[in-house]
Amino acid sequence: MADTEKSWENLKEKTPFGQLPVLNVDGFDIPQSAAICRYLARKFGYAGKNPEEEAWADAIVDQYKDFSVAFKTLIFAARAGKPQEDILKIRYEIFNPSRDAYFEILNKILKDNKSGYLVGDGLTWADLVVADNLHSLEKLKALDDDNEDHQKLRKYVEKIYSTPDLEDHIATRMDTEV
């Protein structure tokens, strides 16, 4: 067993659910990515301005998580080296319909809200999650240049990424594959 595998096996036993991620705050472990994000959103003021906004931000992130099943199916197939024919089948039969439904929901929320944000009149963790996801989809060429709704989502990402508190981080963060 390699050293990294041994290290993981030793660490795995100490995690609440035997997996990552885990955020440790002053000796208190918080497992699961959505729970960590919600915790940080509340701690730093990005959860929403009232319980209703918090609920909508949570709902939008849950919608993203529903879409991410199709997204991950496509990514994992490509990373596993599946034949191109299988990847294209997943893209056109699973990913694209799911993406289109997700984009339709996002565009409707943005149109109805009119503030340029998904919830209320300010930045929430839902904006951060969705903008990051759309950025990843852009890198995969999953937003079409000639589709007006896709262009609206690109402009939305630009708005979120140009938030003064985020600009430095966005400009200097490590660029990942997806």
TrEMBL record:
Question: According to the UniProt entry, what is the EC number of this protein?
Answer: 2.5.1.18
Which positions carry the signal peptide feature in this UniProt record? none
Q: Which PANTHER family match?
A: GLUTATHIONE S-TRANSFERASE
Q: State whether keyword Transferase applies.
A: yes
- By what name is this protein known? glutathione transferase
InterPro entries recorded? Glutathione-S-Trfase_C-like, Glutathione-S-Trfase_C_sf, Glutathione_S-Trfase, Glutathione_S-Trfase_N, GST_C, GST_superfamily, Thioredoxin-like_sf
SUPFAM superfamilies xrefs: GST C-terminal domain-like, Thioredoxin-like
- According to its UniProt record, this protein's enzyme class is transferase
For this record, the Gene Ontology CC terms, alphabetical, are: cytoplasm
Q: Which reactions does this protein catalyse?
A: RX + glutathione = an S-substituted glutathione + a halide anion + H(+)
Residues in domain GST N-terminal? 1-48
Q: Which residues form the GST C-terminal domain?
A: 50-178
Spell out the family assignment given in the record's similarity comment: Belongs to the GST superfamily. Sigma family.
**Which keywords are on file for this protein?**
Transferase
What CDD domains has UniProt attached to this entry? GST_C_Sigma_like
Q: Which domain of life is it from?
A: Eukaryota
One GO MF annotation is: glutathione transferase activity
**A Pfam match:** GST_C_3
